[in-house]
Amino acid sequence: IRCWSNIPFITMPLSRVHGKSFAHRSELKHAKRIVVKLGSAVVTRGDECGLALGRLASIVEQVSMLQNQGREMMIVTSGAVAFGKQRLRHEILLSQSVRQALHSGQSQLKDMAIPVLEARACAAAGQSGLMALYEAMFTQYSICAAQILVTNLDFHDEQKRRNLNGTLHELLRMNIVPIINTNDAVVPPPEPNSDLQGVNVISVKDNDSLAARLAVEMKTDLLIVLSDVEGLFDSPPGSDDAKLIDIFYPGDQQSVTFGTKSRVGMGGMEAKVKAALWALQGGTSVVIANGTHPKISGHVITDIVDGKKVGTFFSEVKPAGPTVEQQGEMARTGGRTLAALQPEQRAEIIYRLADLLTDQREEILLANKKDLEEAENKGRLALPLLKRLTLSTSKLNSLAIGLRQIAASSQDSVGRVIRRTRIAKDLELEQVTVPIGVLLVIFESRPDCLPQVSALAIASGNGLLLKGGKEAAYSNQILHHLTQEALSIHGVKDAVQLVNTREEVEDLCRLDKLIDLIIPRGSSQLVKDIQKAAKGIPVMGHSEGICHVYVDMDASVEKVTRIIRDSKCEYPAACNALETLLIHRDLLRTPLFDQIIDMLRIEQVKIHAGPKFASYLTFSPSEVKSLRTEYSDLECCIEVVDSVQEAVEHIHKYGSSHTDVIITENEKTAEFFLQHVDSACVFWNASTRFSDGYRFGLGAEVGISTSRIHARGPVGIEGLLTTKWLLRGDSHVVSDFSEHGSMKYLHESLPLPQRNTS
Question: Is 684 helix (H, G, I), strand (E, B) or coil?
Fold first, then answer.
């Protein structure tokens, strides 16, 4: 028998068949029976007298939502003492004699001393009101609630325990939410404490232990403990080095320092951890989270059940590798060491990785074959994604060539002086390039992205976290292994990390203290989801690749079909493939137009007609559903425009600012198009497919950015750098430059050091 908070815990309850808790957060969505424990700090107001009604209403709404989904919800609540204290204080004030009130004056009446209120009396006065409040709130969601009061003694008597168990099961069977609390009106008086001003509070850790006991007794899948802190920290919350523990494992208690107790109640985090570990041992998963924070309290319970990274999750299954937080720290440290290397050393790492891609070709293709076989057997990937997933000898050779380009062009990327200014005599300022920090690159179905991005991160001295799609797991694993092998030649293996844990993308996007820039490589939906989920972390990328080719009335017959075929058919799944073909109205029913249509039919491109194009035809192809469609396949939209100005307007209205092309022999028209189209890449008489870091001579790219801040278009090494300022002086102080000071500002531009272009 274990005794915590005066409640004897029998290691395994009589009716309990040993269950197994969930190993990962992602499994919490399968929880059927859930206990939500509300601490006093969650239920009570900041003045510790009365209830936090808005917060309580939000909790009831979330519990009701889960109950109406078919789950079985139970609440273990505090709050009776605080509610009773509010009522009794009000009664005491009203009971003062009229004469005393008149003689005292209104101001003195407000300051009238309130006698110390005994906690059991407060509980007796507050319990009925608390329950009535719960009933009224749950009624709004057509849910019935039932009150159950227990004491420590109820757990000593086996018959009472069986009765309690039976009552709870019957209530759950009838879709009723049991609301359980300790019967504080009849418990023995506790030791005096000052947690609630003027009240001896019943120890809240009774409710922590009660919640754990009920969770195991009722074979509950999940226990959610809400308090006034975000979860469990490795040192007292508020201290400089305190870090939230995402997952807590049995045996980790030695690495944790417990701080002071919560604003109200006596349990403290230590009692919560003990109760949580006991529940975990009994087969119930546990999450401790903040139920008071205004930004998250409105969805904290549902977020936990959805498997989101909220609070501290208790798990018995310890992963073999590091957590993503630890990987982030490793990438940060490794990146700083990488940035401190000589440029030749960083280049040597990239050259080594390029050699490994060709030397280990057979192993890479074998791993890729496993991914392709699994994807085809499960039938979960569309044809365009399968094409992106496929590696080949030619792809690996191209990758190796691109990596060598990166290595050759990276000699003076980090630490390059881009501005020098003499501020004053012996006071010189430099602006130099430095890495951004830690990059998170999330990519789908494209394992070739891993060595490309790794090489760019290495060249720019950035730490890197990689999150690849599970459909490319085998390919990513061997490519990451080769990357770390290359990094090892200069002892910076940890700079590039592959996230293999079950982290959801949304959870990764919340690691704002570990990640400096997120770069998504995948579908437009992935990019949109990441942009929405990122909290305080910049996102570089494009959500869609709706690329246009405008065929002007002065276009060359020889050039048109070549450029359109290459733009649409060379690799239709690429983000820089043609999606909308704009035709000048004067070209309709001409031999050139017929050649375009014939070529598209031969290439088996499905044509969708824009509204204006459809109006010119008696029998038209299927009319396009939206002019903002990225097909990523052998499909495209054809629309008619009256002029280059209308083409530009169409692109601005329906395009995605990615890549747009004009085909014309009229230089004036071409220059108008080049200057007025507001896209990252604008071409004249060239395929949209040239919008690529490798083809631009950047070696590779981390992606194509359509944003207007920092980097735009194919992003290579330069886009992964920022700057810092270095000021070198000799006892200079600002006061010397005042009106009557001895020094004057010069602000002279100085020549830059000669760049290494070897």
Answer: strand
What is the percent of the chain where pLDDT is above 90? 55
Crossing angle for the helix pair 591-602 and 557-569, nearest 10 degrees? Answer: 30
Q: How far apart are CA 113 and CA 351, in angstroms?
A: 80
Give residues with Cβ within 8 angstroms of 409, minimum separation 6.
Answer: 459, 697, 698, 699, 717
Closest CA to 469 of 477, 457, 460, 461: 477
Neighbours of 109 (CB within 10 A): 14
The mean pLDDT of 54-63, rounded to a whole number, is 94
Q: What is the 3-state secondary structure (H, E, C) of 225-252?
A: EEECCCCCECCCCCCCCCCECCEECCCH
Kind plus residue range of the DSSP H or E element containing 136? helix 119-139
CATH architecture of 324-533: 3-Layer(aba) Sandwich (3.40)
Is 238 exposed, middle or buried, given 0-12, 13-18 or 19+ CB atoms closer than 10 A? exposed
Quote the CA–CA distance of 638 and 362 in Å, as a whole number: 43
Domain spans in the chain, listed from the N-terminal domain onward: 25-92+118-187+206-314, 324-533, 548-701
Residues 415-452: tens digit of each pLDDT: 999 999 999 999 999 999 999 999 999 988 889 999 99
By the 8 A CB rule, do 495 and 464 touch?
yes
Look at the domain 25-92+118-187+206-314 and name its fold.
Answer: Carbamate kinase (3.40.1160)
Mean pLDDT is highest, among 532-536, 548-552, 568-572, for: 548-552
**464, β-bridge pairs:** 439, 496
- From residue 658, alpha-carbon distances to 542, 547, 704, 720 in Å are 8, 6, 8, 19
